[in-house]
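Hi U.,

Before I forget, here's the chain from the pilot set. I'm dumping it here mostly so it's searchable later in email.
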Amino acid sequence: MTVKEIMNCITEIAPLQWQEDYDNAGLQVGDVNAEVHKALIALDVTEALVDEAIAKKCDLVVSHHPLIFRGLKHLSPATGIERAVMKAIKHDIAIISMHTNLDNSYMGVSRVLADRLGLTHLSILQPSADHPELCGAGMMGEFEKPMEEIEFLELVAECIGSPCLRHSALTGRMVKKVGLCGGSGSPFIADAVKNQVDAYLTADIKYHDFFAPDGILLVDGGHFETEQFTKQLIKDLIQKKFPNFAAEIAETNTNAVHYFCKK
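Structure:
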């Protein structure tokens, strides 16, 4: 199996041309024509993650977030990113990342989060102009039965495994129609309001954004937490196409955010 063949498993549903202009999805380290035999799948690539790949004799890392987001001017042991690149090269480990192209796919990041929550009648929150049914930001869906806002918050916290959630003031309304965007979805709050959702779940919401929505419950579930199911999505896409290819989800916890909960 080659790096390119594995990459194509994902780009079939999330073409690289769907990535945002600022992004750097695709090949990060290595040769697309190189033969690979085992992949480690993660949300982020860190030095510790590359160490895990080395220990498990993986010759490919597939991540959601790119290791190299901005250009590197040199390679030295000065930063974790540079050390990760150097270790990957030294041990012949290729690295590919599927970022905003997978965010923008109907079958991508927000879709799997919506499925985990049990939402149905799914559609894209902000469809793209060129492929409105297949590509765009976020997702909308409905619960079979409306629920109280506290019940919705409990469902979200349990689903994503979060010890706490940031949210706007409760509205007193029932929650049936939900908008969501895995990762940083603040730019699409206006789309959630426009589509008259009862609640909008995303991450990285700024303080003043919590004042913006009128009549909807705004919930910040955390960046890692709302995107974590992308790892299983990537594994499923690879093994659906190549059932005998060895692919496993990394054990290394790459969530950079930690929580202190006072007892």
